[in-house]
Specification:
By secondary structure, the protein is α+β, with helices and mostly antiparallel strands. It has two domains: about 1-70, no CATH class; about 75-295, Deoxyribonuclease I, Chain A, CATH 3.60.10.10. It is built from seven helices and 13 strands. The strands form two sheets. Strands 1, 2, 3, 4, 11, 12 and 13 form a seven-stranded mixed sheet that branches. Strands 5-6-7-8-10-9 form a six-stranded mixed sheet, with no helix packed on it. Helix 1 packs antiparallel against helix 2.
């Protein structure tokens, strides 16, 4: 029974390729795979098949949720002709007004640039705290409902033409020539189950980003996993590589199950180390960070 449910669940997660409205089920691809594998292994045992499958399923879910908390190896050095940069993304869910724990979590990530979603500039405690960590901050027009910010240790030049697109909340900025004019794009799409709206948002953003030149990193809360048609279509349309697979939501009980915070890079950008998960610090997401080498030689 469990094996049938797991396989049926896996089939259900692929229906988004037939109708985009059904892409919401792709969020549970990992859980369906764990159920199918646990049930199959349980069937191999001579006794207590159901009990064994149930235990294995629970252990698999717990292990997946603990993945972001595992220790990771140190970053490698940037190759010759490239510069290292560390990028993070964090949906801070800034509703309870407790800025200090989130700021401590951000500081521990030691990122050069961090994309903040659900950012609220009216939270003076958080705004002043993030300014101490990052001297350069770009936000979008919050009067329009946009809630994304990019905080950086290095000067940023805002890229125009994003606030007017009929797409998700977006902030885009470029670094200087020292980092090959790297374009950093912070994204926050609409919530599920509005998959049709999400598809329209990401299609509009893809069209706008398609006019950009040079290296690019797109990161933020996509409200969709890397197994979804939404994320895969978006990445393929811009020839971006997915570099973040850690589950980030919901962070309750320290066992996130859905990898809906994405980090995609353009061709030529090289991963220097493993992806790293941070502390949720009261948010319903955990932050993720990763270091990259940006080719700078001409």
């Amino acid at each position: 029974m469990g094996l049938c449910l797991g396989l049926a669940g896996l089939a259900l997660t692929r229906l988004g390729w037939l109708r985009i409205q059904l892409d919401v089920f792709s969020a549970f691809t990992i859980q369906a795979a764990i159920l199918a594998l646990a049930s199959f292994l349980g069937l191999l045992l001579p006794r207590f098949k159901t009990l064994a499958a149930s235990v294995l399923f629970v252990l698999g879910i717990v292990a997946y949720g603990l993945w972001p908390a595992l220790p990771v190896a140190a970053d490698g050095a940037a190759p010759e002709g490239a510069k290292r940069i560390r990028i993070a993304t964090f949906n801070i869910d800034d509703e309870d007004g407790h800025a200090a724990p989130r700021l401590a979590s951000i500081e521990k990530l030691d990122a050069d640039i961090i994309v903040l979603t659900e950012y609220d500039s009216s939270d003076s405690d958080f705004a002043s705290g993030i300014a101490k960590l990052y001297p350069h901050l770009l936000t979008c027009d919050q009067s329009t409902g946009c809630d994304v910010a990019i905080a950086s240790r290095y000067p940023l030049a805002r890229q125009d033409g994003y606030s007017g697109i009929q797409g998700p909340s977006v902030v885009a900025a470029r670094l200087g020539p020292d980092y090959a004019n790297l374009l950093v794009v912070g994204v926050h799409t609409s919530h599920v189950p509005n998959t049709t709206l999400q598809f329209e948002e990401l299609s509009a953003l893809s069209k706008r980003l398609g006019t950009e030149q040079g290296p690019m990193i797109v990161t933020g809360d996509f409200n969709a996993t890397s197994q979804s048609r939404l994320v895969q279509d978006f990445g393929k349309s811009l020839d971006l590589t997915q570099t973040a697979m850690l589950p980030t939501f919901p962070a309750y009980f320290g066992l996130p199950q859905l990898a809906i915070d994405q980090m995609m890079v353009s061709s030529g950008i090289v991963k220097l180390g493993p992806q790293t998960g941070g502390s949720a610090a009261g948010s319903d997401h955990i932050p993720i960070a990763r270091s990259f080498a940006i080719p700078t030689s001409r």
